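Regression test case RT-17, inverse folding.

Input:
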């Protein structure tokens, strides 16, 4: 494979993320399969394209920008456990500030959960995932992969903040944010979080064991 094939896959990845969310296309899709169906299909498509792009990063001849070391591999392994826990604590929980929340009308700023620490926990997890994978992957193809993905996650936080402020009103958004930040730090932990942390740990173990199939490189 070549850099041209890798660039083509990157283009397909970007198209698969942007095309379905265009207002006209999304409106017709939601009318056919519903909001929940659209979200599920879009999520599956995004995940499949991401896995394909990760594998495609191994196609070009490597051009190393910095070496891989035992320290960078260790930092990535430890950090990814934290990323898995962030996802486990954030997915399916009410979060009116960001995407990925469920039943946002039930959000209680006095009991905000992980939202007390960050408004965009899923995007934070994605940014950390990308940054951690940059450390041991200093070849140009992987830098081109993880650098923009991490940047998009960080930029997405600002874009979603603007969108939410328009949706609920800037003053209402700021008041809700202030209430959330005043909640005690202990409210980060909610009912069921122990089970979620266990599931996050199991997901981490699963990723370690299947990493060679996902990315073509074993982390063991």
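Golden output:
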């Amino acid at each position: 494979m070549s850099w041209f094939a890798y660039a083509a896959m990157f283009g397909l990845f970007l198209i698969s993320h942007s095309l379905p969310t265009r207002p006209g296309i999304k409106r017709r899709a939601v009318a056919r399969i519903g909001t929940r169906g659209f979200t599920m299909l879009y999520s599956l498509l995004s995940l499949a394209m991401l896995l394909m792009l990760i594998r495609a990063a191994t196609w070009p001849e490597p051009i190393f920008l910095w070496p891989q070391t035992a320290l960078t591999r260790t930092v990535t392994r430890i950090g990814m456990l934290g990323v898995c826990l962030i996802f486990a604590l954030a997915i399916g929980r009410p979060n009116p500030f960001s995407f990925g929340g469920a039943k946002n009308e039930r959000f209680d700023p006095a009991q905000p959960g992980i939202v007390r620490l960050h408004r965009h926990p899923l995007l934070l997890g994605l940014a950390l995932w990308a940054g951690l994978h940059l450390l041991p992957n200093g070849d140009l193809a992987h830098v081109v992969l993880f650098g923009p993905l991490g940047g998009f996650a960080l930029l997405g936080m600002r874009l979603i903040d603007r969108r939410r402020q328009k949706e609920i009103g800037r003053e209402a958004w700021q008041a809700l944010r202030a209430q959330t930040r005043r909640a005690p730090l202990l409210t980060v932990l909610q009912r069921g979080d122990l089970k979620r942390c266990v599931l996050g740990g199991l997901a981490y173990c699963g990723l370690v064991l299947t990493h060679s199939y996902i990315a073509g490189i074993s982390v063991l």
